Amino acid sequence: MSTLNEQLISTEAHRSIFENEVRKLPLPVCKAFGSAEKPTLVSFVNTDKVLGTKDAATVAAAFPNTVKASANTVLKAGAATAAVTGKRVAVLFSGGPAAGGHNVLCGIKRMLGAGNTVFGVRGGPKGLLEGKLFEVTEADVQKILNTGGFDFLGSDRTKIKTPEQFEQVKKTCIDHKLDAIVIVGGDDSNTNAAILAEYLYTGIKADGSGVQVIGAPKTIDGDLQIRGLLPISFGFDTATRIYAEMVGNILQDTASSLKYWHFIKLMGRSASHVTIEVALQTKPAFTLISEEIAEKKLSLAAIVDQIAKTVIARYRNKSLKHGVVLVPEGVIEFIPEMNALIAELNDALAHHADAFAKLPEADRAAFIQSKLSADNARLLASLPGYVVKMLLAERDSHGNLQVSLIPTELLLIDMTRARIKELDAEVPFNTQNHFLGYEGRCGAPTLFDAAYTFNLGLTAGALILAGKTGYMASINGLTTGGEPLAIPLPGLLNVERRHGKDEYVIEKALVKTDSPAMQYFISRRDVWAADDLFASPGPRQLWGPAARQIPISVALNDAAATLEFKIG
Amino acid sequence: MSTLNEQLISTEAHRSIFENEVRKLPLPVCKAFGSAEKPTLVSFVNTDKVLGTKDAATVAAAFPNTVKASANTVLKAGAATAAVTGKRVAVLFSGGPAAGGHNVLCGIKRMLGAGNTVFGVRGGPKGLLEGKLFEVTEADVQKILNTGGFDFLGSDRTKIKTPEQFEQVKKTCIDHKLDAIVIVGGDDSNTNAAILAEYLYTGIKADGSGVQVIGAPKTIDGDLQIRGLLPISFGFDTATRIYAEMVGNILQDTASSLKYWHFIKLMGRSASHVTIEVALQTKPAFTLISEEIAEKKLSLAAIVDQIAKTVIARYRNKSLKHGVVLVPEGVIEFIPEMNALIAELNDALAHHADAFAKLPEADRAAFIQSKLSADNARLLASLPGYVVKMLLAERDSHGNLQVSLIPTELLLIDMTRARIKELDAEVPFNTQNHFLGYEGRCGAPTLFDAAYTFNLGLTAGALILAGKTGYMASINGLTTGGEPLAIPLPGLLNVERRHGKDEYVIEKALVKTDSPAMQYFISRRDVWAADDLFASPGPRQLWGPAARQIPISVALNDAAATLEFKIG
Q1: Which residue of B has its CA nearest to A281?
Q2: Which of A355, A540, B291, B302 is the S-S candidate for B298 at Cβ 3.0 to 4.6 Å?
Q3: B248 and A123 in contact by Cβ < 8 A?
C-alpha cells in the first residue's frame, strides 16, 4: 500500500488535516482563569445587577429555594480559591446542535481537573432520564477540542416535564452519585435547567443535600441574548459565518453569471437575528426582517411589491438582472394576515379533524376554506397549491404549523414574478432558490465560538466547584477581555399560559427594530438595493489575520469599538 | 457616526476583513518564473510528447496552420528570454464561473508587465463579439487578486460558431489592435479557442499577421484533465472543498441529532469527479458514481436496493438511524434504462411536439407513454409524478433534457423508502435533501487554486510573448514544484457528429473506474457504509498549517507522495 493510501486512511473518523491541526490551536481565557491548561478556580461574588420579569413574584413562589439562594442577583468571578475535589458532574447537550458544544465540555473538564469526575450524557435529556452516562477522560478532551457538532455526546429534544421524568432524573443522580448537571441548550433547555435546579435543590444525596444544575446558552438562532449580560448564544457566530460565506459566494456568482435572482431562506424558527447578521456581513439587494414586518403590519402583497420594485429599479437604473433576497425561515408567521390565517387554520383543522382526514386530498382545501372567515378564505384561495398543501399539512406535537415545510422562498418568487409582470413586464427575472440550514449547525467553530465556549465551560465548572445552582454561565465584554458571569435562571422566567396551564418560559429575544444593528441595517439597505455593494466574508479562518471577527450585529448592539473579539 | 459604523461601511464592495487580508497573501511561482512580483519571461521548447486523437488526420486537415506550427507537440518552459513590449492582449471568461479566474488575469497582467497592454472583455464571448473591452490596470490586479468569482469581467455561454460571429471577432481584433486573446473556459471554450486560433492565424493585422489565441483550463466539474499533462482544471479544488465542508458539517449533524438520512446532490453535468472527491474528503455512508453505474449497467431498482440495504444494515448492526448519500447531479443519464427512456422521450417529444403542446398538462404523460416502447412506457409509469413532469419539461437549445431540473435526490429518497418498507419495515428512515451547486462556483479560491491559476496566467502570458497560438496553458507536477506546459489544442480534438454535422470537440474526461482514486474509494466504501468513519475537512484555510491541501483524487491519480501542493 502506498504512503498516500495510508495517510488517507489515517484521516478517517475526524482526523482530516484540518481536524488534526485545529485540535492544537491554543485558546485564550479570561484573565480570572489564568491559563487554559491549568485554569485558576475562582469564587463568585454578587454584582449589583438583580434580575426579574413582570412575573417575579409568581416565580419566587414557585422557585423558593433557588430564588432565595441567589436573590436573583447576577454573579461575577471573584478571587482565586482553594481546590475542590471529589465532585461528580454530568454534562448533556439539548436540542439542535451548535458549534462549540464540545468546547463547553472541554472547559468544564479542564476546570474540574483530575480531582473531580466529568460524565457525558449520551443522547441528550432522554439519555439523562435513562441514565446513559459515561466518564469523560482527558484523552476525550484532546479528541474533541475545537471540533464542531454535538456528536461526541449526541442530543435530543425530550422535554423534562412530567413527575415521572423528574423522578427518573433523580434516580440517575442517585445511581451515578452526581453532584451536578450542566445542561447545554437554548431557551427551553435553560428553563428546564431552572426547574431541575429547584427540584433537585435538597434531599437527593444521602446527607440530604441536593444536586446543582447549571445552564450554558446555546442556539444558532441567537434568540438567547441579554443586553449587558449575555452578548449572544454560542453557535450563532459559526452558523451565520457559514451562511454568510455561502450567501457571499452566491452574490459573487450573481455578478459573475449576470442572470439570476437567488432567493435564500435562512434557518431560524422565529427571530431574524441570523438573517440580519448575514445581511450585515454580505450586503445583499433585499432582506426581509420578520420583526419589522410584524411591527409595520405588512401584507404579503406589500412585501412582494417592495421586492418587485427593487428588481425593476436595479434593471432600469443599472441594467442589473441579478440580486439576492434573504428570507428568514419563520417570516410567514410574522405577516399579520398569514398569522391570522394560520391561527384560524389551526383551529379549523383541530375542530374538523375527522371529517378532514376522511376527504380525498384534492377536496381538502375547498372543505377547509368553507370553514374560514371571508378574509382568510380569500387569502387561502390566493395562494399557490404547494403552499396550501403545506399549510394544511400535519401539525407538530404542540398543534403548531411546521413552518420549515412552507416553501416561502418559492411563494415569494412566484408572487414577485406575477407582480413584475403587472408593473413592468419587460424586466427579466430568472431565479434560483436555496435553503441554508443544517449545514450551519455543526461546522467547525469559529475561533470566536471556540474561545467563547471554552470559557463558558470554565465558568460553568467554576460555578459547580463554588457550589452554585440555578445559574446560566455567561461571558460578557467579549471585545474587552471577557468577564465570566453567572445569570440566575429564575430571574429570566416569565409565566405563559400554554395548553390551559401556566408554564415558565425564558422569552425568546427577537430582533428589536430600534436596536443599533437594525438601525445600521436600515441606514444602508437602500444603498445595497440600488447597486452591487456586496462583500464576501469568506471561509472562516482559524489562523492568520482574518481569524478574530465577532458577529457584526453583536458588535453593534454592544456598542463595541471593534469587530475583533478579545478574551484574556 | 461611530467608528464601528465607519469601519462597517468600509467593508462594502468586496472589502470584508477577509477580502482585504487575502489580497495581501503572497503567491508561490514555478522556479522558471522566479518571482510573483517581477516574473521572468521564459521561452518554450518542445517536449517529446506529441498529442493526437483517433481523428488526428481529419483535424490536421481542418487546422492546417496551427497543427503545422505546433506539430501537436507539448511545450515546456525553457530559458529566460529578453523582454517583449507593445503587445495588446484581451482576456475573457467563458461559461460558469470558477474560483481563480481573477488570478489567471492577474498572472497574465504580471507577465506582460508595464510594456504591454491587457484588456478585459466584459460579459464573456458575447462581449468579444460586441467589442466590450477595457484596459486592465495594476490597480485592478491589486483589487481582484485572490478573490473568487468572475465578477470583475462577467461571463456568458455564447458559442462562437457562425461565420458572422467569426467576422465579429475579427472586427474586435482589428478595432482594438489586438495581438492575442486568452480564453478562460472549459472543454467547449477551449475547443472554441482552437478554432479561433486557426481562424485568426494570419491576415488580421495590417502586416498580414494573425492574432494569437491561448486557452486556460477552467471548470469546477474537473472534466478537463489529462493525466501527465493537466492534473486538473482550476476551480475544482475550491468547489469540492466548499461542498466537502458542507457535507462534512451535515455528517457531523447526522451524528449529533441522530435522526436523519441526508441525500445530497452535487453539481456536475456529467462526470462524477466532484462527487468522488467530496466522498474521499468526507467518507459518507453511500456515494453514487455515475460512470460505475453505466459500466455495471445498474438499473434504478438495483441502485435503490443497495441504498436501502445500507440503511437497514447500519440500523440493524449499529443502531444508526442516520447517514449521508451523495448523488452526482448527472447520474440519471448514466443509468442505462433511464438513458434509453430519455433518448426515446427526446425523439417522441420532438416528433409529436405540436400534438403534445396542445394537450392539457394532465393528459401529457399518458399521451407520450402511448408513443413509447413497452419497456420505456412501463418505466415511465413507475416514476413519481414530479419526475415525469421534469422528464417531459422543455428541452434545452440542443434538444437535451435539462438534467439539473430532475429532483434525483427526491426520487431516490421515495424509492428507497418504498424498498425499505418491503425489506424491513421497522427500520426508521427520516430524510432531508440538499443540492450543492451555485455556492461552490464563486467562493474565494483555496490557496491551491489561487497559486495554480496565478501560474496558469503567467504561463499564458509567457506563451503570448513567445508568439505562440493554439495552446492551452497548464502547470504539471503540482506537488513537486510545478512545471509550466503548453498543450497544443488541436491535439485534443475529436470529431463528433452533432445535428447532422461534424463538430470538433475536446472529450470530457469522465471518472475512470480503474483509476487510482476510484480504486481507493472502492477499497474503503464498505467500511464507511458499515459505521460512522466520516471526517470534516473544515473550512478552507488561507493561512496556517492546514492551508496547502490539494484534491485527494488528483493526488491519488497523479501517484503523488503527499496531499500538499508545492509550487516553486
Answers
A1: B16
A2: B302
A3: no
